[in-house]
Amino acid sequence: MIAKITRFFIAGSVLMAMSFSPACKKSPGVYFGILQGDIILEPLCPEPPCNLTPSDLAQFWANRQVLIYTADTSKVISRITLTPDAIYQVALEEGDYIVDINYYGDDISPSVPVTVTIMSGFTAQLDIDIDTNLK
User: Fold this and answer.
1) Taking the domains of the chain in order of start, what are their residue ranges?
2) Where are the extended beta strands (E) located within the chain?
3) For residue 21, is pLDDT > 70?
4) What average pLDDT does the segment 77-81 reach?
5) Alpha helix positions (H), the chain
6) CB of 94 closer than 8 Å to CB of 33
7) What is residue 3's predicted lDDT score, i.e. its pLDDT?
8) pLDDT confidence tier of residue 2, bands split at 50, 70 and 90
9) Is 39 left (phi over 0), alpha (psi -120 to 50) or beta?
10) Rounded CA gap, 7 and 1, in Å?
11) Which of 40, 45, 95, 108 has a beta carbon 3.0–4.6 Å from 50's, enabling a disulfide?
12) Which DSSP helix (H) or strand (E) runs through 26?
């Protein structure tokens, strides 16, 4: 059975779309869930046509990271370097986290920072739009 919960924005926090899966347990008493999402990164070039080589495109994406912080932002739990496949995924212990990006160059994002709650055995979906501000 698949349970789906639509996104709700509550006081700066986000309850993510979640689907049920068997509990992820890596060690006794520690349970994990998954945070994943799609990335929209644009524009890739100041103006068309965009003639980035595959190597240039890979580096363009690799300059950007999704950062996962503890709920009090005192520690970075994970740095996820982006790739041109435009997706990310990470297993996290149950709990609250702050998700942000590394703001490479003039990047901005209306999607982050945001608080996510990870629950054992669930997958939280957080899609992130990144505006590179290339003009």
Assistant:
1) 8-131
2) 8-10, 13-15, 17-20, 24-27, 30-42, 65-70, 76-81, 87-93, 95-101, 114-118, 122-125, 128-131
3) no
4) 98
5) 54-62
6) yes
7) 33
8) very low
9) beta
10) 19
11) 45
12) strand 24-27
Widest pairwise Cα distance in the chain:
54
Q: Which residues contact 28 (CB under 8 A, 6 or more apart)?
A: none
| Amino acid sitting at position 107 | D
Cα distance from N-terminal residue to C-terminal residue, the chain: 47
Q: Which residue has the higher pLDDT, 132 or 15?
A: 132
Residues 6+ apart with CB under 8 A from 88: 36, 37, 39, 66, 80, 82
What is the number of other CB atoms lying within 10 angstroms of the CB of residue 100? 19
CATH class of the 8-131 domain in this structure: mainly beta
Query: Do 119 and 34 meet the contact criterion of CB atoms below 8 Å apart?
Result: no
pLDDT digits (tens, 9 = 90+) for 22-48: 445 556 677 999 999 999 999 999 988
Q: Are 97 and 72 in contact (CB under 8 A)?
A: no
Cross-strand pairs, 95: 118
